[in-house]
């Protein structure tokens, strides 16, 4: 109830998000993150997910390269 109040929405909507029946808009994700005092990306992470800052430099570079290629591929698909 407190989360719904802080986000300016109904408890039923928050409940539907929690059980996967609804997916929040970007605006609502930002509101939820602000209400929980966490960065929005943390709402999509599992406890076992690693942060890029904890990776070795070579692993970071490999991840960045893969992400850049994925972004290029997505852009090419939409054009």
Structural description of this entry:
The chain is an all-alpha fold. It has two domains: 1-45, lambda repressor-like DNA-binding domains (434 Repressor (Amino-terminal Domain)), CATH 1.10.260; 49-79, no CATH class. The chain has helices at residues 2-7, 11-18, 26-36, 57-78. The longest helix is centred in the C-terminal third of the chain and has 22 residues, at 57-78.
Helix and strand arrangement:
Blueprint: H1 2-7, H2 11-18, H3 26-36, H4 57-78
String of helices and strands: HHHH
Cα end-to-end separation: 44 Å
CATH architecture label name of the largest domain: Orthogonal Bundle
Q: How many strands, what sense, and barrel or not for the largest sheet?
A: none
Which residue ranges are poorly predicted, with pLDDT under 50 across at least 5 consecutive positions? none
Number of helices: 4
Portion in beta strands: under 5%
Mean pLDDT: 87
Counted beta strands: 0
Could you give a short description of this structure?
The chain is mainly alpha-helical and 79 residues long. Helices cover 59% and strands 0% of the residues. The model has no long low-confidence stretch (mean pLDDT 87).
């Amino acid at each position: 109830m407190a989360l719904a109040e802080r986000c300016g929405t109904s408890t039923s909507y928050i409940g539907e998000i929690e059980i996967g029946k609804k997916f929040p808009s970007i605006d609502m994700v930002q509101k939820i993150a602000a209400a929980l005092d966490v960065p929005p990306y943390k709402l999509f992470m599992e406890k076992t997910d690693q942060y890029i800052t904890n990776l070795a430099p070579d692993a970071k570079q490999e991840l960045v390269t893969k992400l850049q290629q994925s972004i290029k591929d997505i852009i090419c698909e939409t054009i």
